[in-house]
Specification:
The complex is a heterodimer of chains A (1004) and B (205).
Chain A lengths: L10 H9 L1 H10 L2 E5 L1 H6 L11 E4 L8 E6 L4 E5 L2 E4 L7 E12 L5 E7 L21 H10 L8 H15 L8 H21 L1 H9 L3 H27 L2 H13 L18 H9 L7 H15 L12 H14 L5 H11 L6 H19 L7 H16 L9 H10 L2 H15 L11 H14 L16 H8 L2 H9 L14 H8 L2 H9 L14 H7 L3 H10 L15 H7 L3 H9 L14 H4 L3 H14 L4 H12 L3 H9 L4 E2 L10 H22 L3 H8 L3 H9 L3 H8 L11 H7 L10 E2 L5 H7 L3 H9 L15 H7 L3 H9 L14 H8 L2 H9 L14 H7 L3 H9 L21 H31 L13 H11 L8 H15 L3 H13 L7
Parallel strand pairs in A: 1-7
Antiparallel strand pairs in A: 1-2, 2-3, 3-4, 4-5, 5-6, 6-7, 8-9
Chain B lengths: L6 E9 L5 H9 L9 H6 E8 L2 E8 L11 H5 L4 E7 L3 H18 L4 E7 L11 H10 L3 E4 L8 H16 L25 H5 L2
Parallel strand pairs in B: 1-3, 1-4, 4-5, 5-6
Antiparallel strand pairs in B: 2-3
The complex binds guanosine-5'-diphosphate (GDP) and magnesium ion.
Chain lengths: 1004, 205
């Protein structure tokens, strides 16, 4: 259908009109059919007037069942029509197939009509070599490039590179971002397409082709268009979606809530369902397609598949059938940005080829989407399920009295028959009150008691713990229906909000899924656990986020501390992932503001922002992250380490350049003009020393510090730093002494002292440790440098820097000389955190072997394992685990290390380690279980009857964190510290502090 | 495109379910040279190329779903239409009332430029007629539409109906401009009620 031309300008048709007017006049009565070769061919071939009669067909009596219609030309040659092809048969010099390009009806002055076919081949003479490229062949962008390169019949080298260069320039210059109007984007895109088409036409091969056949430009344009969209799609599409994010959010809410709908609910004829799964698969490709043409084609294919004849019937499909099928497809598709896709297809498909056909496709999809969003489709699945179930159970219970059967009771709840429910509950309670441990008791004994008591009279009688075939109790049903008054009643009569059905759903799950806000608030208020997971790992918060119920999310979030906002389900998704994916902007904002983590990674290693389908949601994340960036240490650490790994010369200058000057002691605090001048000089000198340290020029350092060369020999070679201390610092009361005498002593010759620090608090020792210069570090320590001195802003000790740059020898040296092994910087990070972040196993081992605990928290409760996992350092992860790191430690965002990693290897390691632990703890749990059952059950208030999850929960309260086996490495570290470090007095003190304060307390 | 090859008009078929819209649609666009694989779209959307009085015309004909529950989304189908064919069943008086509602809605949403044809289908069942011919023709005159009778079953009157519609489309305003794209097209309003005051009808004559 895509080829079109004005036949009145076709030379063959013009000849027909001028030379054979009678033929045309007779045509309506004799059913003549005129075949006209398309213009490009008609121009070329040389036809005698007589030959024109070869192109006029007269129908013969044909056998319609074969699908072949036979014609005869006015020159008595035979032509058969099969589908859209004309087969030239007897009489023609050669058998040939000509394709029908289009069909047109002509009306003469008397309003009588005859048909004209435009064909792609001449019937006689040389067959044309011109093949019309079908637009479908341009679906693949590689084909488009190929077409542009060789389509002109001549190889145009480099056109692909040229186009890509143009496009990368274009992308560089034009900003597609949230807030840009559709018109603006459209103008930008069509401008670049026009420009590229123009450039293509400048190539003579392409230009010649265009001059031969004007319709060539449509194909050319389509090829260029496809190539352009293919390159710019990643930048463009989400912004286009961003413009309709509100509509998409609304639609997703509707479709999520209709997820259980079936074909019969939409009155779809069963024969049309046959092709449904295949159509669904076709439609699923949509998300990965990049050009409007590909997307339109995908829609079109989906339509085709839906309407293919099925084994059961080949009743043709019509407009009445298409819409419900589309509605069902959209509900069951996982596409989260339908409006975005529609807008993209509708506005950005610029080619005129088949436009009308695609318009119809788009309108149909749009109609289906609009139908859904307007909320006209409401199907009470629950009602239906209940009804079907009733039918089933009635068969089995026919003989028993059903006045109080579970189904009848549920029906009462469904009907909101408040007084009758109360009656039932009253009668239930009063009759057995005395025999129970407690009126509300649901312990095993009381329950069996209740059950047996009832069975004497009435098998079908309900208790508050009875459940239906799906394991749902009365409270579940009431929550599903959203009847909060009944729920309150049930709760008052002792119904347990904790019970889970066979899908693992608690009443709170149901209330949240259905969006019953009052029910949700009631349940939360009555202590329903908010962290229960159903069989897919979803918590109520997941469901409220999935089904788009912001009020429920609010209710849940209000009750939960921030660390509880990041539970993850089977797919590793947190509620924030889900809300982002389905475009619920309000929920995303709500979760973020309540402290949900934007860093959690799901099993596809996406953070929530990656799940966002449109730029509107992405912008919400960007803004939030930007606002909170300052507080975020991980990001800082990443930036920091990136900056620090520049070549060494630059590195030193970043450290030494912003150097205003100040001493760490108070001696020069009073500033006079002289002082300022002096400070300036000192600053300069200090910079020189820093440079010398960074380039490892030890002698220069000594010289500038004014230390005798003789010092060098003795200091470097002597083993014990303690002895050195004594021997070299004779004249000073104490290495760190700041009395006037000592300062003067230290300050001899140059103005530099070992305790001096730069404006940012960097001391010489910091610098030596940063560069891993062992001998200089040792020298500075001997000269009395404070090993625990800190930089001002970040509070880094030399040990932090040594660990961060993986200087294991220096690490050991520092620890041996009394460095605080758990020193925390401004973000609460210990040196081990830095080793872990950077994956430096050497320094980490050095720290761990010297007694560092792997389970120190930073201010966001990350332990080093979090950092190692986050940056994907497998060896480091293994190393930390070997040294007793907790594997399931939650950080402030309630994320475990496994949740923030992007590396498969790390996941495997962590999982296998977790499993190993689970086996151990399972053994232990069973032990505790058996202990528990021996103790008095009735006294345990929270005894929970069935679910394995709740049993686990229960145990958790019995066992203190951390689990027993984790204590082993701890105890090791506690006892090894004094042994290893008892060499100095200071260290011994440190070690004893350790022993008394315990491993988790920070020393600072 | 460098040049426009034809006048293009979009025409929708509207009317209650089962009055014969699909039958009329298929009859008119029936095409001996169709390819098997393009079934669906052909089932509800086809383009017909015509040349009359020296003018080339492409009619894009859209069949629509008749179910009542989909009424609210009809604007998506008829937006940008230059012509509308409102079908009723001459044996069903209700279906004719439905046509009146459609007329009001279309006049309100698409203005008076829309070329209307009101079609009484199933003339082969003349004996069961429940819509007075005279009434129908008069009503069509009042609202600026043209009335036709046809039978999809016998293939009577259909060609004439489309030919006349095409003529009126050409003369109504020459070239259509519905191909002009507007990216921010208004959302179709979804609450269409048929409570337009009666005087509105006169304004359309
Ligand atoms: N007798 C008769 N029946 C017709 C005619 N047109 C359609 N029908 C029948 O009316 C029914 C509904 O037709 P259909 O085209 O599906 O109507 P739609 O719902 O408006 O699309 C079908 O059973 C057709 O066979 C007609 O002109 N005469
Ligand atoms: Mg129909």
């Amino acid at each position: 259908m895509s080829y079109d031309e004005d036949l009145s300008r076709n030379p063959i048709f013009q000849r027909l009109e001028s030379k054979f007017p009678t033929l045309l006049a007779e045509a309506p009565f004799k059913s003549f059919l005129f075949c006209i070769p398309k213009n490009a061919i008609a121009q070329e071939i040389d036809i005698q007037d007589g030959d024109i009669l070869n192109y006029v067909l007269k129908p013969l009596n044909s056998s319609p069942e074969s699908g072949i219609q036979s014609y005869q030309t006015l020159t008595k040659k035979r032509v058969e029509v099969r589908g859209r092809n004309l087969h030239l048969k007897q009489g023609f010099p050669e058998a040939r197939i000509a394709r029908i390009l289009f069909e047109e009806t002509f009306y003469n002055i008397e309003d009588k009509s005859y048909q004209v076919l435009c064909v792609d081949q001449p019937f006689e003479g040389k067959p044309t070599s011109q093949v019309i490229l079908q637009p479908e062949e341009l679906l693949d962008p590689n084909e488009c490039y190929k077409f542009l390169t060789v389509g002109g019949g001549q190889n145009i080298i480099g056109i692909e590179n040229y186009i890509q260069m143009e496009l990368s320039n274009f992308l560089h210059l034009s900003r597609f971002r949230q807030g840009v109007s559709l018109r603006h984007m459209l103008d930008m895109v069509s401008a670049v397409i026009t420009r590229l088409v123009m450039i293509c036409l400048k190539y003579s091969a392409i230009h010649r082709k265009y001059c031969e056949d004007k319709s060539y430009i449509d194909i050319l344009r389509l090829a260029v268009e496809n190539v352009v969209y293919f390159e710019i799609y990643p930048k463009l599409f989400k912004v286009v979606c961003g413009l309709v994010s509100k509509e998409d959010g609304e639609l997703n809410k509707v479709t999520r809530n209709l997820a259980h709908i079936e074909a019969t609910d939409l009155e779809i004829k069963s024969q049309f369902c046959f092709n449904f799964p295949k159509a669904k698969r076709e439609l699923a490709k949509m998300t990965s397609l990049r050009t409007p043409y590909q997307k339109l084609w995908c829609m079109h294919e989906t339509f085709q598949i839906l309407s293919q004849p099925t084994p059961h019937s080949n009743e043709p499909m019509n407009a009445d059938d298409i819409l419900p099928l589309l509605v069902l497809l959209i509900i069951h598709s996982d596409i989260a940005c339908w409006y975005g896709n529609i807008s993209f297809m509708e506005n950005f498909y610029l080619s005129p080829l088949d436009k009308e056909k695609y318009k119809y496709c788009i309108s149909s999809v749009e109609a289906a989407v609009e139908f859904l969003r307007s909320g006209n489709l409401k199907i009470d699945r629950f009602r239906k399920a209940l009804f079907i179930q009733n039918e089933g159970t009635q068969v089995t219970q026919k003989n028993t009295t059903t006045e109080c059967s579970i189904d009848n009771f549920f029906e009462l709840i469904y009907q909101d028959n408040f007084s009758k429910i109360q009656d039932t509950l009253d009668s239930l309670q009063n009759s057995h009150l005395k025999e129970l441990c407690h009126p509300l008791c649901t312990c095993d004994r009381c329950q069996t008691h209740l059950a047996t008591a009832h069975s004497h009279r009435n098998v079908g009688a309900v208790t508050l713990c009875s459940c239906d075939d799906w394991g749902r109790g009365p409270l579940h049903i009431a929550a599903l229906v959203g009847n909060e008054k009944v729920m309150e009643l049930l709760l008052n009569y002792g119904a347990q909000p904790i019970s889970q059905d066979y899908h693992g759903s608690s009443p709170l799950h149901m209330a949240c899924q259905k969006g019953h806000i009052k029910a949700t608030m009631l349940l939360v208020d009555r202590g329903a656990p908010t962290n229960l997971q159903d069989n897919s790992g979803n918590t109520p918060l997941h469901l409220a986020s999935l089904y788009g119920h912001d009020a429920c999310v609010k209710a849940l979030v209000f009750q939960s501390p921030a660390r509880k906002l990041n539970p993850y389900n089977e797919k590793g998704d947190t509620p924030l992932h889900i809300a982002a994916r389905w475009g619920y902007e309000d929920i995303v904002i709500l979760l973020l503001e309540s402290g949900a983590s934007w860093e959690a990674r799901n099993k596809d290693k996406e953070v929530p922002k990656d799940c966002a389908q449109n730029s509107a949601i992405q912008t919400v994340f960007k803004d939030y992250i930007f606002r909170t960036r300052g507080a975020d240490d991980m990001l800082y650490a990443a930036d920091y380490s990136k900056r620090m790994t520049l070549p060494s010369l630059k590195r030193s200058s970043t450290f030494s350049s912003p150097m205003g000057f100040r001493r760490s002691n108070n001696v020069f605090r009073t500033t006079t003009s002289l002082q300022i001048k002096k400070n300036h000089m000192i600053e300069r000198e200090m910079n020189l020393v820093f440079d010398a340290i960074s380039t490892g020029k030890e002698n220069l350092v000594r010289e500038m510090m004014g230390w005798e060369k003789t010092d060098m020999t003795c200091s470097i070679d002597t083993e014990s730093s303690c002895e050195l201390n004594n021997s070299t610092c004779n004249g000073v009361c104490h290495p760190l002494c700041k009395c006037i005498k000592c300062t003067a002593e230290q300050n001899t010759e140059t103005g530099l002292t070992i305790a001096m620090a730069s404006k940012s608090g960097q001391t010489f020792l910091h610098m030596a440790c940063l560069h891993g210069n062992y001998s200089l570090s040792k020298l500075f320590i001997i000269k009395g440098a404070d090993v625990n001195t800190r930089t001002y802003a970040h509070k880094h000790t030399p040990l932090h820097l040594a660990a961060q740059y993986n200087h294991s020898g220096v690490v050991k040296l520092l620890i041996e000389n009394g460095a605080e092994i758990h020193a925390k910087d401004v973000n609460g990070c210990t040196p081990l955190h830095y080793s872990a972040t950077n994956g430096h196993t050497d320094s980490a081992l050095s720290l761990l072997d010297n007694g560092a605990s792997p389970n120190e928290n930073d201010i966001r409760n990350n332990i080093p394992l979090h950092n190692a996992a986050k940056w994907g350092h497998t060896v480091m992860v293994e190393c930390l685990l070997e040294h007793g790191s907790l594997v399931d430690k939650y950080n402030a965002d309630s994320l475990m290390p496994i949740q923030i990693t992007q590396s498969d290897e790390v996941i495997t390691i962590l999982e296998s380690y977790q499993n190993k632990q689970k086996r151990v703890s399972a053994r232990r749990n069973s032990l505790i279980d058996s202990l528990n059952t021996e103790s008095d059950i009735t006294s345990s208030m929270n005894y929970i009857p069935v679910s394995p999850v709740s049993v686990h929960d229960n145990i958790k309260t019995v066992i203190p964190d951390p689990p027993i086996e984790d204590l082993r490495p701890y105890s090791k570290s506690i006892f090894t510290i004094p042994q290893l470090t008892s060499k100095t007095k200071v260290e011994a003190e440190v070690a004893s502090t350790y022993l008394t304060a315990g491993p988790t307390t920070s020393l600072t | 495109m460098a040049e426009r090859l034809s006048l293009e008009y979009k025409v929708v078929l509207l009317g209650e379910g089962c009055v014969g819209k699909t039958s009329i649609f298929l009859r008119y666009t029936e095409d001996k040279f169709s390819e098997k694989h393009d079934v669906t779209l052909q089932a509800a959307f086809r383009t017909k190329k015509l040349t009359l009085s020296g003018k080339r015309v492409s009619l894009h004909i859209w069949d629509t779903a008749g179910q009542e529950k989909f009424h609210a989304i009809a604007p998506i189908y008829y937006r940008d239409s230059r012509g509308a064919i409102l079908v009723y069943d001459i044996t069903d008086a209700n279906s004719f009332d439905r046509v009146k509602i459609w007329v009001k809605e279309l006049r309100r949403m698409c203005g008076s430029d829309l070329v209307l044809a009101i079609v009484g289908n199933k003339t082969d069942m003349e004996r069961d007629r429940h819509v007075q011919e005279q009434n129908a023709i008069e009503y069509a005159g009042q609202v600026g539409a043209k009335h036709f009778h046809c039978s999809a079953k016998l293939n009577k009157g259909i060609e004439e109906l489309f030919l006349d519609l095409t003529r009126r489309l050409i003369s109504s305003q020459g070239e259509s401009n519905y191909n002009a794209r507007s990216p921010t097209r208004p959302q179709p309003s979804l609450d269409i009620v048929d409570d337009t005051p009666e005087e509105k009808r006169n304004s359309c004559c």
